[in-house]
Amino acid sequence: MTSHSAEIPGIDQLFKDLEHPNPYIQTEAFLALVRHWPDESLPKLLELLDQENITLRRASVRAIGAFGEMSLIPLALKFRQSSDATVRASCIKAYAQVASNYCGISFPEEAINALKCALVDDSPVVALAAVMALGQVGIQALPLLKEICRGANPALAVAGVNAIVEIKDPSITCFLQDILQSKTTDSYVKETIESALNRADLLQV
Fold first, then answer.
1. Which of 8, 27, 29, 116 is most buried, most CB within 10 Å of its CB?
2. What does the pLDDT look like over 185-201, one tens digit per residue?
């Protein structure tokens, strides 16, 4: 009779499976890591965000997203410690994965502060990733997203509008209409708001 411990897949093999080109095998590997080796594997996955191997780095982002609450503060630390924009973007993308996988999860202050820092990052890739992550966070991120929509950076404002319209909150339509009426709002942002409001109307039907 096989013992229970023998049925648990080895951590080394699971990390090898993360490098597999088949996304299904990757997914099975990181779900097994979460189930059987959470404390041992999360620090290793955070280290893999420094990898130049794009497949492995992306798999690591997806994997970290499956760890939920336990990954939020470690990601904030990783983000703040990294001087590499690609690593910082990966941390923020992992936040988006967590929020998507664990709908309604509450982000601690350290995580929200990391997202705030990302919004003013020197890298536009990091900043845009932060807007998308905040859209996944949802209601908790509404104040930040509203600031972005009103902000002076048109690219971020457009991303903010597209993110905020996906959140179900009665204040959003009026908020976007107010920005639309403002003379200082960028024309491209206004076009995006008009399109977003049409989508919002369709979603509410």
1. 29
2. 999 999 999 998 887 66
CA separation for the pair 188, 33 (Å, rounded): 44
Phi, psi of 117 (to 5 degrees): -60, -40
> What is the distance between the alpha carbons of residues 131 and 133, in angstroms, rounded to a whole number?
5
Assign residue 106 a region: left if phi > 0, alpha if psi is -120 to 50, beta otherwise?
beta
Per-residue model confidence (pLDDT) at position 1: 37
Determine if the pTM surpasses 0.85.
Answer: yes
How would you classify residue 153: left for phi > 0, otherwise alpha for psi between -120 and 50, otherwise beta? beta
Residue recorded with tokens 């996304």: 23
Tokens standing for 179? 């920005």
CA geometry: angle 30, 34, 35, nearest 5 deg = 115
What pLDDT is recorded for position 142? 96
CA distances (Å), origin 49, targets 3, 90, 93, 142, 191? 35, 7, 11, 28, 36
Amino acid present at 153:
N
Burial environment of residue 26 by CB neighbours within 10 A (0 to 12, 13 to 18, 19 or more): buried
